[in-house]
Amino acid sequence: MQRIFINKSLCAGCKNCEAACMAEHTTHRSLWLVNLSDPSNKPNNRVALDNSGQPTPIFCQHCDDPACVTACMAGALTKNPETGVVEHNRDKCAGCWMCIMSCPYGMMHTSGVYEDTAAKCDFCAERGTPRCVSSCPTGAITLRTI
Amino acid sequence: MSICVSADKVLEKFILSKKDLESSFNRVPDQEVKCAFGMQGICCRLCANGPCRITPTTPKGVCGATADTIVARNFLRAVAAGAACYLHVVENTAANLKAIGLGQSDISLKGTRLLEELSSKLDLPGNNVGEKAVALANQVIQDLYRPRHEKMELVEKLAYTPRYKKWTELNILPGGAKAEVFDALVKTSTNLNSDPMDMLLHALRLGITTGIYGLGLTNHLNDIIWGEPRIRLAKVGFGVLDPEYINVMVTGHQQALVGILQDGLSTSEAINIAEKAGAKGFKLVGSTCVGQDMQLRGAHCQQIFAGQTGNNFTSEILIATGAVDLVVSEFNCTLPGIEPVCDAYGVPQICLDDVAKKQNAEYIAFSLAEKDTIIQKVIETAVERYKKQRPSVKVDIPEHGYDDVVTGVSQKTLKEFLGGSYKPLIDLIIAGKIKGIAGVVGCSNLTAKGHDVFTVEMTKELIKRNIIVLSAGCTSGALENVGLMSPSAAELAGESLKAICRQLEIPPVLNFGPCLAIGRLEETAADIAGELGVDLPELPLVLSAPQWLEEQALADGSFGLALGLPLHLAIPPFITGSELVTNILTKDIEGLTGGKVIVNGNVEDTVNELEAIIMAKRAGLNI
To answer: What average pLDDT does range B36-60 have in this prediction?
Structure first.
């Protein structure tokens, strides 16, 4: 299984992981073209400052015992036993926002594109390496096999 | 070892053979992760509240600046810097012409016929060559130093008349060039201008100053000093290096400065010194645009000029041949990356203009009055390296380049070649044998598919479709080193263009030389438009700076837009963060000047788009 690891002491707060995530979830996938003024583009990750002012990338943990999956009454959220990735099936999503309320990391959010459903990190299912990992210039975000 | 690929496979193989060499090609993989905010031009660090970046949840900077304001400010700053670079070059060139005209140097002007022509065209005073040279130089310098509220006088006399009228109508005639650059900086400083349209129109004014002064007049003044171009065959590539000579590599854009070495290293005294050191003499080895300029005027310095080796990104590699004994630089593109390579191969560096001062270079402030001292210093430094390092350094010159590149093509020589008028070319265009013209210009970069890859692939596709290509800039270094500027490249052209090239024994890609010669291309276009009796935007002519690299290219591009020409770029000019600025530059501006920016990173799609524009313009002319 692979997981994203964070070394926040290396984070420069450039937000490139946010921009990369937004680009990856558009049809053209281009960093040149992703509309960074469009509020409907929402990254599945974010960089926030911790209590000491250190920029800190915050990502979906794909938890072992995911609160969002437990909370999802529609069966839209599931934990893939093979990859360990917490997957979201938009077709099943009822838009009840229970997942948003239950995630301790605040990583579930309302999809900007489909207003009636939730959205989350999909581990860039169609890419070998999540785009945020390959877009981090400092090595603060890495992919490791566990 | 992972390196950036090149269109020039011989070069690529040579780089891979140099295991200990670190060059730009090695650093590309390390720099692959780019900052999306920088790419889109929406990072602002004009004040201590920043850096601010625009995101969907933070649509304004702390001060309230929107993406449109931030992008327009960054763009105008870049264009102003690029214009400043070219204006620096024309100012130095004019200062030297003036000093020669005043008799302060023993250099004799080689282009007196052109001086007479220009004096008469510009109504300049003067009873003899010297007085006329001074009058021309003074006029250029005065225009550069006018305040912004005074229009530059030579614009009307040198611009294509329909364009001058259009610029007057749009109120984009430039005031004093330096003041235009200065106020562009003021305008884009913290909490000043927030109007994207005003800033983009300012960029067009800077484009006009760049084109007419920085490019066009630099060419004319250098032609007057060093001689006008003549069409001839020349050698290009690393193969021009001859290890039996003491080789002085020149980098930059100012032949007005390094040109003093042409005669200075050819004297019998200089040759004696070289012979005593065990060499046959000295050679100037062309690198970057100043080499292209020397090659263009190569008929006037055939003995001393070895030939052009390549473009900006071949310069580090050239030093690693071991056969370079001194680097003399005076402007960009003198990459910082050459310094450790020079150190590794024991190659000293001399810089003649502190705007391009390299950390390891010895700086000698250029002055025509100190010409002999500079030449002496160059000779001593190069000879010392030759004697001390050559025996211990392995000289490795690959078989690289071509011996039959057609050079010396200019707005005048092309016309002379065609029999004194563009009519034969126009007739071929009307007959459809040549579909149209593409100016493939500007820089070389390592990002649009690799070193010169986009440039070369696009050019091959254009000529295949019977579109003749004219090139100026580092693109020429790319195209000549892969054989596209040799007559045999005709075989790669479409049937009708191939037949024409074969008959005239010319390549389908014409070599105008350095980026400064973009000014010559644009004068060529104006001449053709004049013969047809149309304005520039009506011509079946497109511009592409596919692998643009730097701020100067953006200033050149702004000139292209002011001229009303479609301008393709493979990489966006850091504007895509603003829908407004992107729409103005790629669409709306067509309604103002007739030109527009086309951004396309795919070769096939680009050529389809450029061909469609050419076909539409042909239809507009009923041909």
So the answer is: 94
CB contact under 8 A, B579 and A37: yes
Strand blocks (E) in B305-401? 305-308, 326-329, 349-351, 362-363
Q: Are B202 and B181 in contact (CB under 8 A)?
A: no
Q: How far apart are CA B506 and CA B566, in angstroms?
A: 26
For B6-130, strand residue ranges (E) read 43-44, 52-53
pTM of the model: 0.94
Burial of B359 per CB tally in 10 Å (0-12, 13-18, 19+): exposed
User: If you count residue pairs, one on A and one on B, with CB atoms under 8 Å apart, how many are there?
Assistant: 59
B304 close contact with A: CB closer than 8 A: no
| A37, A129, A135, best to mutate vs chain B, most B CBs in 10 Å | A37
ipTM for this model: 0.81
Q: What is the DSSP string of B224-246?
A: HHH-----EEEEESGGG--TTSE
Q: Rounded mean pLDDT of chain A?
A: 93
Inter-axis angle of helices B67-101 and B551-562, nearest 10? 90
Return the pLDDT at B32.
86
Q: What is the CA radius of gyration of chain A?
A: 15
Q: How far apart are CA B145 and CA B154, in angstroms?
A: 13
- Cα-flanking dihedrals φ and ψ of residue B368, to 5°? -60, -35
**Subunit contact B56:A20, Cβ cutoff 8 A:** no
| Cβ contacts of A20 on chain B, cutoff 8 Å | 36
Res. A112: pLDDT tops 90? no
CA-based radius of gyration for chain B: 23
Q: Looking at the predicted structure, is the pLDDT value of residue B588 above 90?
A: yes
Q: Mind listing the pLDDT tens digit for each residue in B409-466?
A: 999 999 999 999 999 999 999 999 999 999 999 999 999 999 999 999 999 999 999 9
Residue of B179, B464, B521 lying closest to B529 (CA atoms): B521
Among A118-127, B69-78, B473-482, B594-603, the least confident range: A118-127
Asked if the Cβ–Cβ distance from A36 to B56 is below 8 Å, we say: yes
Question: Nearest residue of A to residue B59 by CA position?
Answer: A37
**pLDDT score at B255:** 98
What separation in angstroms does the CA of B265 have from each of B19, B108, B273? 34, 16, 10
